[in-house]
Amino acid sequence: MNRKNWSLVCFLLLAGAAVGWAQTGAGTIQGTVKDPSDAVVPGANVKIVQTQTALKRDTTTNASGFFVFPSALIGPYTLTVEAPGMETWNAELTLQAGQTAEIDPVLKVGSSTTEVTVTANATPLVNTTDGTVATVVERARIEQLPLDGRSVDDLIYKTTPGVEPQGAKVPTVYGVLYGSEMTQDGALLENRDWQKLPDRLPGLDTIEEFRAETSNSSAKMERPGTITLTTRHGTNQFHGSIFDTNRDSAFGVARARQDYYDKPPHLVRNEFGASVGGPVYLPKLYNGKSKTFFFLSYEGYRLRQNVTGATSVPTEAMRNGDFSGLVDAVGHKYQLYNPFSTRANGDNPYSRDPFMCDSAGTPLLLNSDNTQTPTSSSVPCNVIPSSLENPVAKYLYNVTPLPTLTNVNPLLGDNFFGLGVNNKNQDTSTVRFDHQFSENNQIFFRYTHSTNNSISANGLNGPGEPAALDGSFNLYAPKGQNDTGVVSWTHTFSPTFFGETLFTLGRDYHAELPGTGTKQFAIPLGLPDPTGFYGFPRIDSTGFGYNYDACGCNVNIARARVWNLAENLTKTRGRHELLFGGQLQYERDDTLPDQQDSAPHLSYDTLATSLYDTTTSDPTNPLAVPFSGSAAANLFLGVATYQIRFNRQFYF
Question: pLDDT tens for residues 601-641?
């Protein structure tokens, strides 16, 4: 099953001086042209040129001397204002993501051939158009600020007051849970079903700027806080970069260690990538300088890491049925009893005989009913005949790591110190094209594809629990994929009427899976499994710290798709703007919720190999005589509680 959501929104806003269609991260340049007497100058010609691309746009001031350039590409600009009988006015400014730059030129009376150039950068230092509180981090700071890794969300947290991480979920804004939304060029970067960010966000080499609004956001935004990422674009100059950073445990200063290991666990972290942009140029076919631009980028991340883990595992003797080392911390010895000898004896409904050995310590031969007949020289022992070994135990022993500390009793402490794998492969690719058909028509297209594939040791005891020697259990392998695309068309109908058509598409896939989720284990192990579960059964309470599970996780899958078609229109009248338009949005979530305990479950206790305590037990609550029985011996014999919960949940 799946969930679909359609929404059609029409909107009409009467605004003041701020034009606000900034979902794509573009900005707005506006202002009022006046003369030295503070009178407005109608009919003045205003031209802007994006100096990196030489893209031009021009307009004329209205009767109130007002001009506006909405949906302007961010970056450096020159602004030129001309009017009959006035000196030409020139200035430079830098437009930031989502910014409304208010520039009010003052023209002096004189010849239009005389130019007045504002030497200082005319970019407004203070936002005077609205009360929005926002942090903008431009390309220079993205490149220069120190950061451990290349995660854009980490950079956002470190530079934006009030925005805090929330694990894999969307960040909080001043403590408001799910109070933010992240977009890239207007495309949503979020799995709404899980309220989480993609497993792999756009790379730092891809982002030109980001803007994080944390207070008084415009009513057009869906959340109290909006984080807008703006993708880099091509310019008239070819530019590119290539990088590679490496962290390797083989290098560095050694430190004193107080654990089992004499050197740090293996760690290699490699982040690498390249980007290139410029005008589209096809020799003898097309020269897109000042017209058509491209930008391509790729970033990769590779992690090869070992995580230290400590636990207790069966000794080699125990794997052969010899449990003579069953003692507690003060040396009290346990006695194992043969469950196949169980019989009623007077007031004891569960009378049993201990396992018996001859004087040489060899277990007595078994009768046809798996009992033993004592002899005059036989003595109780804790050695189980190898013929009673259960196939499940035999398989587990073969794939369970051997002890690394053979002098430690696994019933008293950890006798295994090992390394668990923690590997990650992440890739992100982005392509963007910008084209100007005319000064009145601009279009851009951007597509980003990212993947995340990980595998790590993870069992019922948490991360680091060693995986099986054959990789059949205790391996966690989440997978993720995210795709976003944007097409934006900006059209100027007249100096006072503008339109922006925006289409965005987003797909996000995330799955919590075991490392061997495509293989079935229960039936080959001889365990009934009417559910047909794929993955390793859950096996716990084995008498050791080491347990067995597919991945120490609950299998779940979430797929989210959203596309949005929006038309944003702006009409200026005097010093006011009328913003109107509409959007059609379609969302679809396919979710497989947590498959809790849907795997076959084996659990062991001590009762099967213990002696029934007639003084403290009753028929509904059997209890063992102290220092009798062992869950580790029950594992060897295959005497367990087996359950399957029919709570399989399906997609919705």
Answer: 888 988 889 998 888 887 778 888 888 999 999 999 999 88
* β 379-380/75-82 pair status: unpaired
pLDDT > 90 in the chain, percent: 38
Give yes or no: residues 577 and 626 share one domain. no
Contact of 446 with 185, CB cutoff 8 Å = yes
Q: Are the C-beta atoms of residues 400 and 552 closer than 8 Å to each other?
A: no
DSSP 42: T
Cα-Cα-Cα-Cα torsion 34, 37, 39, 44, nearest 10 degrees, comes to -40
Domain that holds residue 573: 1-15+264-314+403-595
Alpha-carbon gap, residue 509 to 45, rounded angstroms: 50
- The Cβ-side half-sphere exposure at 360, using a 13 Å CA radius, reads 3
Residue 249 lies in a domain: no
> In the block, which residue shows the tokens 């880099």?
232
The letter for the amino acid at 274 is: A
User: To 5 degrees, how large is the angle CA 477–CA 482–CA 485?
Assistant: 170
Q: Are 548 and 591 in contact (CB under 8 A)?
A: no
Beta-carbon contacts of residue 391 (< 8 Å; ≥ 6 apart): 525, 526, 638
Give the three-class secondary structure for 591: strand
- Sequence-ordered list of residues with C-beta below 8 angstroms from that of 613, at least 6 positions apart, any chain: 623, 624, 625
Asked if 151 and 181 sit in the same domain, the reply is yes
DSSP notation for 229-263 = EEE----SS-EEEEEEEEEETTSS------SS-SS
CA gap 347, 351 in Å, rounded? 9
Q: How far apart are the C-alpha atoms of 224 and 218, rounded to whole Å?
A: 9
Residue 355: CB atoms within 10 Å = 24
What total of structural domains would you count in the chain? 4
pTM of the predicted structure, to 2 decimals: 0.81
> How far is it, in rounded angstroms, from Cα 506 to Cα 449?
10
- Which helix (H) or strand (E) element contains residue 592? strand 576-592
Q: Does 254 fall in a domain?
A: no
- 347, two tokens: 């007031």
pLDDT at 600 over 50: yes
